[in-house]
Amino acid sequence: MRRHGDTGYRLQKALSALGPTVNVTTLRLWRRGSKTPGDASSLRTLERIEARYGLPPGYFRVKLPSTGKAVAGHHLPNLSAPERRRLAWHLPRDFDRLPRAKQQEIVSWVRSVIISGSTDYRRYQAGAARQRFSVRFSSAPGRVREKPISREDRAEDPLGIVAAPYPLNEEMAGLLAFKTATLSARGVQRSGVWGPETASLKAEHLGLLFGALVAAPASEIRGAGVAPHQLTFALLAFPSIWDWYLEWRRAKRGFYTGWEIEMLMLCAALTREGVGWLRQNPQLAERLTPISGLISETEIGEARDNWSAACDRARRHALHRAKELSRIATVHRDPFEPILAILESDSPLNGYRLITEEILRRAPNPRRYPVPAAESCRAFLMLRFGLHLGVRQKNLRQLLVCPRGSMHSSERRLETSKCGELRWNDRGKVWEVFIPASAFKNSGSSYFGRQPFCLALRDLGGLYEQIDIYLNKHRPRLLGAMPDPGTFFVKTVKANSKSAAYDQNTFYEAWRLAIQRYGIFNPYTGRGAVKGLLPHGPHNVRDVLATHVLKQTGSYEQASYAIQDTPETVAKHYGRFLPKDKAALAAQILNKAWENV
């Protein structure tokens, strides 16, 4: 402006003659650096300034700092506000000036590849999510659920979610108390204990079964039309109920999967002699009533007269059906499909590491954009910790933190809480992660031998610097006034936040969001680290580690060390990535015989 003799008013007047533009105050804030252009109209103004002063196109744009925010103000008609916000992250800055056909092409690509993930399973999942059917239990752990109802008529909301009637809710409470109590009650026996995650999962699966039974036959769910007051866990002792559910699942999905086998094994466990919860509660049969086409009055009478025999029939039927389904069950999804572009490379770990480097490259200025900078650092550490540790999502999101100079948590305390801890080792001057064996899903595996998992994190790629910045600046900023849950990773606290701790769903979404913004290469914006990558969750990082070690060493045993598992499991799940490398590894040894010829 000084070089061309322009004042703020003169520049604003010249720009306004070309169309809508910003005001003089905004230009003054841009000159001072206290505000930067961030929406589509502001970027168009920059281009007009470049033209006025004879500067090359994009001269100002490359000087804009990373804000950690999407460009706002794109013209996206007929879209909801949430979808516009999601799409804005992945649209080019000149989106509004592109031809209509090009805009539609970009929006379609972003929707299918980045937002939803263009796999057959993701498309099926998106359609299935719109068909809501479930019975919700207020006694089940996890998310806050609706209050149970005592009336016998149908209590169904517009989404197909039915609140469990009071008697059914009490039965679920009894099952959960039986399977989750530290010690079993007097007079009953059990085999195995459910943790909180397993209990929540089983309650959800049983809720889906009862939801299918209660859904109307004429609805898109095509359920059995059972009245809510007829629902009882005693129905699970009838083979006809299970055969109807299996056929309903097959008709809904088109084939049988491992889901049906797991549900049948749950039936077998509940009706097992001596330790089955259903077998030890014969009074449940008193709530049975005839259901047309499923169970008759005669069958109910026989079950009441000899409950043990009814449970024996149900268990034999469940085991027989599970054996039959194991031969024909189909895997609906390829769990490796979202990351095949990485797994098929020579060095999967290096391919995934590019995502963390992309996060650092695009990190916002923490003084100007403190919250986006904190979220960027958190995403970086999520992926880096996943790559270093190779643990499951549960162990990663529940990882506690002990700052430098603080007393470490005792091993007994961590065993009781079943979670690990990030701590500073003064002797070795390193950050280390300590996780008791009891915190792992496969705690009885031979890998642990009842010994804790302890790994020192080396200071590679600026890891320690990011940890210190996160603990000292970013993490407190993310917490705000919310009580500290003690975990290393915390959510961004907002006005409607109830807790700063991640749960299974929110942690998955945080990881998936990082992959969408930094991992997937976008040909229309030039941003993103890996071509061909699709959205995925934290569990896939274990696939990356196991495959990388397997490709480098050819050893199932060494690959199992990377993910705290057994060589048999690695051979079963990851052997498909080794055959072509087996020949190459053997050739390296055999070719040595020809070196001296």
What string gives the helices and strands in order? Answer: HHHHHHEEHHHHHHHHHHEHEEEHHHHHH
- The poorly predicted ranges are 143-158
Derived structural class = mainly alpha
Mean pLDDT: 87
Please outline the major beta sheet. 4 strands, mixed
Sequence of strands across the biggest β-sheet: 3-4-5-6
Query: What proportion of the residues is helical, as a percent range?
Result: 40-55%
Q: Determine the N-to-C terminus distance.
A: 75 Å
Give the count of helical stretches: 23
Please state the CA-atom Rg, rounded to the nearest Å.
Answer: 29 Å
Number of distinct beta strands: 6
Shape: globular
Q: Count the domains.
A: 4
**Relative strand content:** under 5%
InterPro entries: Integrase-like_cat_sf (IPR013762)
Characterise the protein shown here.
The relative contact order is 0.07. This protein is mainly alpha-helical and about 600 residues long. It has helices at about 10-15, 25-30, 40-50, 80-90, 100-115, 120-130, 165-180, 195-215, 240-255, 260-270, 295-305, 305-330, 340-345, 350-360, 370-390, 395, 410-415, 465-480, 505-520, 540-555, 555-560, 565-575, 580-590; strands at about 135, 160-165, 400, 420-425, 430-435, 455. The chain has four domains: about 1-65, no CATH class; about 75-115, no CATH class; about 125-330, no CATH class; about 350-525, Orthogonal Bundle (hpI Integrase, Chain A). It starts with 7 loop residues before the first helix and ends in a 7-residue tail after the last helix. It has 23 helices and six strands. Strands 3-4-5-6 form a four-stranded mixed beta sheet, with no helix packed on it. It has a two-stranded parallel ribbon with strand order 1-2. The longest helix is centred in the middle third of the chain and has 22 residues, at about 305-330. About 45% of the residues lie in helices and about 5% in strands. The model is unreliable at about 145-160 (pLDDT under 50). β3 (about 400), α17 (about 410-415) and β4 form a beta-alpha-beta unit.
